[in-house]
Specification:
Layout lengths: L4 E6 L1 H9 L10 E8 L1 E6 L2 E6 L2 E5 L5 E6 L6 E7 L5 H10 L5 E3 L4 H18 L5 H22 L6 H19 L6 H7 L4 H12 L3 H19 L4 H7 L5 H12 L3 H13 L3
Antiparallel strand pairs: 1-7, 2-5, 2-7, 3-4, 3-6, 5-8
Helix pairs in contact: 2-4, 3-4, 5-7, 8-11
């Protein structure tokens, strides 16, 4: 994905084309959110299959193996597909991780409240289709969409008490602690102690849910924030690195390039061009 954000409305014809090309599991370098007005999804994420009927929301995190089969219901299919880089909404993307730990897709209640989700998607689409789309407007609308989804999810999410639900609850707690502390140079042991468990068990849960170790998730959160700051502030590379717990600019740049295949300065130049619409 060579841009920060895209949105598309998938109708019957597009759904049929997607269904014909859905044999293999895939891994994306972006986050994907689907808001379904009609139709059905057969969704397999991290090799756990589920079928979800509209009205629905579904989410696939960057790096998660997944397989998506689109299906018409009574000859109808109408869904919004939103794709975006983590750094585009760094402050809220981990909220989606928390909301969709237990299920990648969720059927919601129909009615006026759910219809608001479609309205916001239409507003985002309208902005993106304008001659000079304002990505700051899109970011705010996308953040509002996340809040609405969380509100709708609370109305239908069942209480679960099995082992998987307990692991998910532990992982949600970890993400909350991470959000408060990722700027500090803390080890995995710190997070494990906060959760009254061993580092090994916390890593096992993290690997099972996200296919990443705890250290990788901590680094991912730091670098997502770094990209956000590079894109949306005038802070120097050294200031950003220090703010995120990297005491040496050279080490911060080394870690950043290893994960992003670019130096922080190269990323800033590219993202500035994208935001200015010059590439």
């Amino acid at each position: 994905m060579n841009h920060l954000f895209s949105i598309a409305r998938i109708g019957v014809e597009e759904a049929r084309l997607m269904a014909a090309d859905s044999d293999d599991s895939r891994v994306h370098d972006f986050e994907e959110l689907i808001v379904g007005l009609s139709g059905s999804l057969e969704h397999t994420v991290n090799f756990r299959p589920s079928v979800v009927n509209a009205p629905l929301v579904a989410f696939v995190a960057k790096g998660q193996p997944h397989r998506l089969i689109t299906k018409e219901v009574n000859g109808e299919f109408d869904m919004w597909m939103l794709r975006f880089k983590s750094e585009f909404v760094a402050e809220t993307v981990f909220q989606l991780y928390r909301n969709f730990l237990q299920k990648a897709g969720l059927s919601l209640q129909s009615g006026t409240c759910f219809n608001r989700l479609g309205t916001v998607c239409s507003l985002i689409d309208e902005e993106m289709r304008s001659s000079s789309p304002d990505l700051s407007v899109v970011r705010h609308l996308l953040s509002a969409l996340f809040i609405m989804i969380e509100s709708e999810k609370k109305k239908v999410a069942p209480g679960e008490h099995d082992a998987l639900a307990i692991q998910n609850e532990t992982f949600v707690s970890f993400l909350q602690i991470l959000e408060d502390n990722f700027r500090r140079p803390l080890s995995v042991d710190f997070y494990a102690e906060k959760l009254f468990m061993s580092s090994r068990n916390l890593n096992l849960i993290s690997q099972k849910i996200m296919n990443q170790s705890v250290s990788e998730l901590i680094e991912t959160r730091k670098l997502t924030e770094a990209k956000h700051l590079l894109a949306h502030t005038s802070k120097s590379v050294s200031e950003i690195g220090f703010e995120l717990g990297y005491n040496e600019k050279s080490y911060f740049s080394k870690v950043f390039k290893k994960k992003s295949s670019q130096t922080p300065s190269e990323f800033r130049g590219e993202i500035t061009a994208l935001l200015d619409g010059t590439s």
